[in-house]
Amino acid sequence: MRLSLRSVDKSFGVTRALENVSFDVRAGAVHALLGENGAGKSTLMKVVAGALRPDSGSLLLDGEAFDPTEPSEARRRGVAIVYQELSVCPHLSVAENILLGVEPRRFGFISKRAQNERAARALSPLLRGRASFALDATLGSLAAGDRQLVEIARALAAENPRLLILDEPTSSLSGDAVARLFAAIRELREQGIAILYISHFLEEVRQIADDYTVLCDGRHVQSGRVADTTNDGLVMAMAGRAIAPHERHPRERGEVALRVKDLAGERLPLAANLRLHRGEVLGIAGLVGSGRSELLRCIFGLEQASRGEVSVGNRPTAGNPRRRLAESVGLLSEDRKGEGLALGLSVSQNMTLSKLSALTRHGLLSATREREVSQHWIARLGIRCRDGAQRIAELSGGNQQKVALGRLLFHDVDVLLLDEPTRGIDVRSRAEIHALIQELAERGKAVLLVSSQLPELFAVCDRIAVMHRGVLGEARPVNELSEHDLLLEATGA
Q1: 89 Cβ contact list (under 8 Å, min separation 6)
Q2: Which residues, 6+ apart, have CB-to-CB distance to 357 below 8 Å?
Q3: What is the mean pLDDT of residues 340-368?
Q4: Are residues 296 and 429 in the same domain?
Q5: Whole-number Å distance between alpha carbons of 222 and 345
Q6: Where are the beta strands (DSSP E) in 83-140?
Q7: How many CA atoms lie within 13 A of 415 on its CB side?
Q8: Cα dist from 392 to 326, 342, 387, 404, whole Å
Q9: Does residue 231 sit in the same domain as residue 331?
Q10: Which domain range does residue 227 map to?
Q11: How far apart, in whole angstroms, are the C-alpha atoms of residue 416 and residue 276?
C-alpha cells in the first residue's frame, strides 16, 4: 500500500475532528475521499500533508513510518496537496510558480536553466497530448484550467512524487478544463502515483476514482471499490439516510424585479439583456471566463459598467453595493474567501454585518440579538460550528458558504444574485440549498443563479440563458432545453 492510516485521532479543543480513522490507499490508484461538509476530510488531508499533527494513531508511506512535522517534510517524502483555493502567484511566470520555494540555485543565484528544466519535467505528464504553454508566460494570463495544472505541477516538482492530494479540483473549472484535468490524473495514475481525490460530485467519482472512503462526523464509515457501489449507497453512507429530491410546486411569475438592458462592463460582459421576475429562478449557464460572474458583479455595482442600464423594479439606477443592498438586491460572491467573508470575524458577525441596524437599540449593538439571529440561521442552514462566536476561518469551505448565504437571508433581500451557490457543498447540503432557493421563489423572491453545473440549473431554474464570449443569449423555459442544447450554445457550436 502507498499510504496506510491506522486509528488516527485529531481534536481542536472539545471538538473531535477525527476519531479512529483507518484505511489504505493503493499505489497507482485514484482514491476518492467522500463526506459531508465538516465530516473531517480537510483535517485528515492536512494531517497526511504535514500541515497538522495527529493527536494519536500512525501513518505509513510505502510501509515506512510517516510522521511529517510540516508540509515541506511531507513534500520531501513525495506527498503534496493542492487545495481547493489555489495558492498560485498570478504575477509570476509558470516556471517560477512551479518551483516556488524550492528554486534551484547555483553560486547563490537562481539557475533559470535548471528551473525551466525541472518545471518542464513536472508539467510533462500533465500536458501529454495537449497544447503546451510557455514556461515564461505570466500565470495570470492562463485560463483557470491551465492554472490548476500549474498548481498540480508544483505539487509534483519533488524528485520522488508518490502521493498527490486534490481537494475539490474541479469546483471552478469548465467542462473542457475538467476533461483535461482527468486526462492528466489518468496519466499520473499510470505512472504509479497514488491520488487522494476529494469531491462532492459523485458523477466525477464514477469517472475518475478506483476506490473510495466515506467519513461521517470524523469517523471512518465505509471503504471499497467504486465499481461495487451505487450513488444511492454512497449518499446513504455520507448522510446516514437517502436524500429525496425537492418537490417542485408550480408557481406564477410576478412583476419584473430586475431588468438589464444593453449592459456591458469595462471588459465583460459585452452585451446582456434580461428580465427577472418575482417568483422566478433564472439560471445563467456558460463556460468559465464567458462573463457570467462579471455580469452579476456589474449588476451589483462591484464592477463598473461601460454602458447599459440596470433597473430595480421599474426604476433605472446607477449601482454601487451600498445602494443595491438598500434596494433589496444582494450578491453571493463566488470568491467567498476573497470578498464574500471577513475571515477574521466570527460566524455571527459575518452573518449580520450587512444589516447591523436590525440589531441596534438606542445606537448600541445588542449582542443578545446578534446571537439569537445567528443561532436561527445556523440551525436553519445546518451550519456545523461550535456556536456563533467561532471564527469563520475555522469552518470548512462548505459551511463558510452557508454563512455567506445566511447573510443574504438575514438581510431579507428581494433579488438574490447567486454566483455558484453550491460550490464546495456536500450532497445533502446541496439538496437543502436547492430546496431553499425554490422556497425563496415560492415566497416571491427573484433569484438570478450562475452555475457551472448543468444538472443544478435544470433542478432549480424556471428559465435558463447562456453566456457565450461575453454575450448573454435569450432566456428560455427549462422544458424547452436539454443539457446538449446548453453545451452547444455555450461552446458556440
Answers
A1: 96, 97, 100, 139
A2: none
A3: 90
A4: yes
A5: 36
A6: 105-106, 109-110
A7: 25
A8: 26, 8, 10, 10
A9: no
A10: 3-239
A11: 10
Beta bridge pairs of residue 189: none
Give the three-class secondary structure for 369.
helix
Number of domains in the chain: 2
Q: Is residue 411 part of a domain?
A: yes
- Chain centroid to Cα 14, Å, comes to 28
Sign of CA dihedral 368, 370, 372, 378: negative
- pLDDT, residue 337, reads 79
Task: Give which of 70, 61, 59, 63 is closest to 9, Cα–Cα.
Answer: 59
More confident residue, 23 or 232: 23
Query: Do both 353 and 453 map to the same domain?
Result: yes
Q: Which cell goes with 396? A: 470548512
Give the bridge partners for 151, in sequence order.
Answer: none
Give the torsion sign (CA, 200, 53, 15, 406). Answer: negative
Instruction: Return contacts of 323-328, CB within 8 angstroms, 24+ apart.
Output: 324/299, 324/300, 325/354, 325/411, 325/413, 328/412, 328/413, 328/414, 328/415
Q: 24 in helix, strand or coil?
A: strand
Q: Which residue has the higher pLDDT, 197 or 107?
A: 197
What pLDDT is recorded for position 297?
94
Within-domain flag for 363: yes
- Residue that is last in its domain, among 239, 271, 297: 239
Give the pLDDT mean for 301-305: 92
Closest alpha carbon to 298 in 263, 322, 328, 325: 263
Poorest-pLDDT segment among 179-183, 278-282, 329-333, 349-353: 179-183
pTM: 0.69
**Which has the higher per-residue pLDDT, 142 or 271?**
271
Residue 14 has pLDDT above 90, yes or no: no
Asked if the structure places residue 67 within a domain, the reply is yes
Q: Are 23 and 211 in contact (CB under 8 A)?
A: no
**Confidence band (pLDDT; 50, 70, 90) for 243?**
low
For residues 232 and 356, state if they share a domain: no
Spatial contact of 79 and 61, defined as CB atoms under 8 Å apart: yes
Cell of 44: 485528515
Q: Same domain for 301 and 199?
A: no
CATH number at residue 478: 3.40.50.300
Q: What is the CA radius of gyration of the chain?
A: 23
Residue 377, pLDDT score: 94
